[in-house]
# Entry
Amino acid sequence: MAVPGTVQKRVEELRRLLHHHDYRYYVLNRPEITDAEYDRLFQELKGLEEAHPELITPDSPTQRVAGQPIETFASVEHKAAMLSLDNAMSPDDLREFEARLRRVLPGETFDYVAEPKVDGLGVALLYENGVLSRGATRGDGRVGEDVTQNIRTIKSIPLRLGGALADSRVLEVRGEVYMPRKAFEALNRALENAGESTFANPRNASAGSLRQKDPSITAERPLEIFVYHISALDPISFQTHWEALVGLKSAGFRVNPRSKRCRTIEAVITHCHALEAERDGLEYDADGVVVKVNSLSQQRRLGATSHHPRWAIAYKFAARQATTRVLGIEVNVGKTGALTPAARLEPVELAGVRVSRASLHNEDEVKKKDIRVGDTVLIERAGDVIPYVVQVIRDRRPSDAKPFLMPTHCPACHGQAYRPEGEAIWRCTNSACPAQLKERLLHFGSRRAMDIEHLGEAVVNQLVDRGLVKDFADLYHLTVDQVAELDRLAKKSAQNLIDAIHASKNRGLSRLLNALGIRMVGERAAQLLEARFGRMEALCRASEAEIGEIYGIGPKIAEAVTKFFAEERNLRIIDRLKAAGLLMEKSAAAGPKPLQGKVFVLSGALNAMSRDDAKDLVVNLGGRVTSSVSKKTDYVVVGTDPGTKAEDARRLGVTILDEAAFLKLVGTE
Ligand code: IVH
# Structure
């Protein structure tokens, strides 16, 4: 039976619409219609195709997940070998790269494109007459695996080319399939809940997902792609790599927005540093920057070795993983008595830092990873966080290694430890435990609490060990002579410490509340309590209900605060602090509040002041500083190397302030 022309037309129209909305949704992240509207179009197309199967084409949006699970992947010989990249470990290696280019092409000048080197899985996508016909993994570079069925399920890969490339006969494009970090974590949680084995990192997760035998499983995995290279194109051609990227974008591909055109190798180096600084803020793992000569004519003339193209190089970020040996497992006591296991490690260099300890978080974590003394472990340091153990290298375990047992007594005071039902943390029950006291004193004197300079770890340890300080109030009764007796403390330093302790008396109520280490009360809650009650006396008398009514303070914080003030011991300490002359109300330093209620996000470095100082300034003027941009944000302050927050601000229409505008607003211009 012949298909009526109107049906044929409608089918084509629906495909065009669905391709367009896929692109808006998956590539641009800016949908124009609701999910329900999209579903209606999709179902209409599906209905028509079911009634007229002869109309189904492979580039139809209904055909992303199609086909049966397969036994093995067919081999694919790449049109052009997928080479590796040469590595640059330092800026000088990049300068040497340019010197080599000059030697091969004397007298010529070069400009570059620098792109994040996303840590995923290299793929080659073949389009014939504008339609996706094959997707292959890199394999050994010459021969890869045909994963077309799985590639098709990645929604940000166009099934049909648009824009500048719509009329090409052949296009082979290379790109990196990856899994965004957040999606990776969610996937692992889901796998864990389902009792299935998890992936060690996003790279393994993307490889595992793309090499699924059943495409319907791949379709459920949150895979993404960035394309970065045209390896074959007929007949259209571009003059530069940058133009090719722009062309790929217009064809419907995702191109990394952090790719940058650089006029000189020094500009490349600056961009490499910027990307490395931004590394933790990226939504994906990246292990370096790929630097490419921009001119395609120069690329052709530079050619390749059997291993790598001469026109490109990978600038590698500092390594963040290393293997080392566990020398011991210690248990540390925190300021609330939490017992935290930590691994003592054979020192090893990691991303420019010597690492000799790694947090093991809690008992369950050690059990789950089965970390034992003597084990060789893979450790990782991501950004500023404490290094952690990724996994044990099992075949290097000594035969006599014994499983770790959590102590049942506090290693500092030998008091009974217990692990409350439903919690992961063991706690020391002794409120006079010296290890807890030391941690509490360090917090009390810290920068954002009472800001007592010179009250460092060495001093605190001795003050507690010699019995000179048993609670916060004792600090204010120390004499210069007492302090001068501590090891390695000159009379002058002793005087400085005493002066600093006395200078802290006027910090005001909110800082004091933060300093007291009340469970769940940090800077923000302390400020809210100060704003509501004004004076310590009023807060002490407040009921749990009154505290819970404060906007921004939940019932759990209210309970913790009331509990704290119900304890006789705590009230005694507060009385003694008051007798020592501590300010128990809002600090007079607080002036007018022109930024009352305004929400700020700080992004990048400022020249005039540190981040902490900028934060203080905003808070002192009544504003608030949060870490991520949302519709509730009033201002995003953008310094140098700002990262993605400025983009978020632009997207959400939030006012962006540069440093000058910020300084003007806070009146320190
Ligand atoms: S260009 C001829 N650009 O790095 C083209 N590669 O060791 C050579 N990679 O297997 C590759 N991001 O999977 C290029 N922006 C990027 C890249 C990139 C990641 C991977 C790719 C390749 C490996 C090279």
User: Anything to note?
Assistant: The chain has a mean pLDDT of 91.
